[in-house]
Design goal:
Shape: globular
Number of helices: 8
Number of domains: 1
Structural class: mainly alpha
Radius of gyration: 17 Å
Largest sheet: 2 strands, antiparallel
Length: 198
Amino acid sequence: MIALLLKEWHVNVWYTVILSGIGILGGLLLGNGSLPLMVAVLVTCLYALLSVESDHHNQSDLMIRVLPVCAREVVGAKYVATILIGFITTIAITLFNRLLPGFSSLSWFEWGSAVGLIMLFVSIFYPLMYRFGRRVITATSVFVIMIFPAGSVVGFSVNGIVHYVVQEVGIFVFGSGMLLVVTLSFGLSTYFYQKYGE
């Protein structure tokens, strides 16, 4: 698992740095008194998409299949790397808002909403990717860029729903529920990886 995580970092480090830089810069320019945490959600989503494309381009996905690693480790590395990127970016944006003069601190509800969206995306994206392969990338890219981070379609906001749920049930219950969703998603992704491959 550690070797696979290091592979993820080595292959995708520049994507991560560039995406984070662009996202934070854009947030600074467009944010109204604070750097929005939705930047972290967008960076995480784009990281997942570019990571899959990078594996296909350099054929590391094929090389991994001949190594003595099990499906759980391969899939687990993707989950852990993507969620780690989300957490690190979320923490960085939270610190930016606390340290930059004139910027307002973010609430726990906002932080919980961002982390919840990241885990929700991971839970949906990877099972679909391991089941249908790279065909799902194009559709997911449109979804991420046009709908997922921004907000609303006919007044329907994913972020608003997550924020509402966090307020209603509390961060601890919401976090426990999302961990369960991610765990079930991981099991499903592992099954699809073993049965269908990419």
